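Box S2. Input/output pair 1.
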Amino acid sequence: MEAKKIILDCDPGMDDSMAIVMAVKAPQLDVKAITTVNGNYPVDVTAGNALKMLELLGRTDIPVARGMAEPMFRESPKDPFTHGKDGQAENFLPEPVTPLCEKHAVDLIIDLVKEYPNEIYILSTGPMSNLAMAMKKAPEIKGMIAGIYAISGMFGQNPYAFANATGDTPQSEWNVYVDPEAASIVYHSGVRLVALGLDVATHFDVNLTEEDLERLRRSDRREAKFLYQSTQFVKNRGFEAYCAVIDCMAVGYAIDETLVETFQGRVGIETKDGLTLGNTVVDYRHHHVWETLPMIEIGKKADYGAFLKMLMELVLR
């Protein structure tokens, strides 16, 4: 079976960094590019961190493009959750020597989608600023994207979705909260969108066992040591190990769509400042549904055992 062609649009971040590891090492995926965006850290940091991971993996043939430095219509918020001084759980990888792609991330997305019409899947693990700008600049690509798998939103499917909200309003998710206008554009684009929200991505069952951690610690793989340090970093700050691999769920879904059970729902995004900024609001009603809201696929529950097995096998292979 031919490998699925993907663009990983991300904001590394330790969990985005691990998503890069999974995507690059998965034989089921063909990573055509990594595009970076402002989100967890400023875009210069996220672009540099993406290059660091590719150098660690020996895959500098994959282009990395720097993208949007700010949200589309607002100032960038400060992330209340830190990924460390280096943005990578204080792994302190060497500064990259590989140059960035000469193209802006928005242009690289447009060009690759046009080069491979109906073949490119976009894995969105950061704010959707790059994707929204690409759709604004070249609206014709909306009919040429095979699908978007996104770590995006909070849909209230279980208590973890509420307890682990990552945005800076009580019930929002960080990637949507940073640039809600961009998310709204992508949600309304008509492209098949699978939103893997906090309901599945921050579930406490996404946790590594002591045996898993010991296997990572003993491995001579640099990416295994990266993940081990990342788990220790978050645990030392009172968080669970899932924080180190949130964005990996999108890669896992791209590899095997049976990993996550989804349902279809109409979703609106709150773009007004205040208590609910960045909320992803599902119209669950049987009657009087707002038909103008876009229909997307929403992650309901995941096979966490299969996901963690996949993660460990790819990191250690």
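Box S3. Input/output pair 2.
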Amino acid sequence: MPALPIADGFWGAVHNTPLIRLQRASEETGCEILGKAEFMNPGGSVKDRAALGILQDAVEQGLLVPGQPGTVVEGTAGNTGIGLALAANARGWRSVIVVPETQSREKLDFLRMIGADLRPVPAKPYADPGNYVHVSRRLAEEMQAAGGRTIWANQFDNLANRRAHEQYTGREIWEQTEGRVDAFTCACGTGGTLAGVALALKARNDRVRIVLADPEGSALAPWVKAGTVKATPGNSITEGIGQAARVPGNLEGAPIDSAETIPDAEALQWVFSLLVEEGLSVGGSAGLNVAAAVRVAKALGPGHTVATILCDGGARYQSKLFNPEFLRSKGLPVPHWLA
């Protein structure tokens, strides 16, 4: 295996994560199920790619200047905020991160630890002016009016997000599989990962099947299947994925073939299996992605290759996914080693 080149700090260390063969999922389906190890990005998640793409775009537009005062404002479920804060630190900018207070304690503590100006707000639906996205936008506008270089990252509708995945993530998957990829599955929060990878893979082979993985309570799967933005029944403990009331700008026009709605119990089955059987610690969205990949592989039949995203590590959800009391309170299975 060739040695990787020396990277220049955070900005040079994002991208080029390995694809990992998921043994149990592959054996169960007779296919190659491959997970992109996004927890190996410097900020620990796939959202480092979006954060870097958005800030690179801001620099190219002259909205931020490395080494000169500047502020990055964003509303996030946590991981994009972490990526933005670390990338901003590396260029001498401050970060103001608005987060729903219901997000995992581990992510909130990490944001404080890395120097973000953290602004937790009550969790409210997108239609409410108090929703974290709207709060972050208004905050950025106030800071812009006061003078100084300030940007609102706007990860949901900023197409620099999906361009980063089209330019890098999708190309990496194609090259790592040597073009032998039959399907790709991924959950959506902003939609940047799924849309960008879809555009990259379809440009190289329009027969690659693109499947959105969705938690219960989200409206994205119905939108893909029927064009209606109406949430499915139920709810989910997963963080940062699914949309109950709107389609983010990054998903508009993306070539998506189908969607799978995955209940939490099915996603957690893969979170726990990957940890105890394969030594891979991942969060709930990664478990949901693998569950969708398994469904797609079974539908395609043996001999196919399905790629997906291992979005982040499980340590960011210790107080929820690996907390027996929390799991029992939600009627979810508790892994035997914690029971």
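Caption for Box S3: The mean pLDDT is 96. The domain at 46-152 is CATH 3.40.50.1100 (Rossmann fold).
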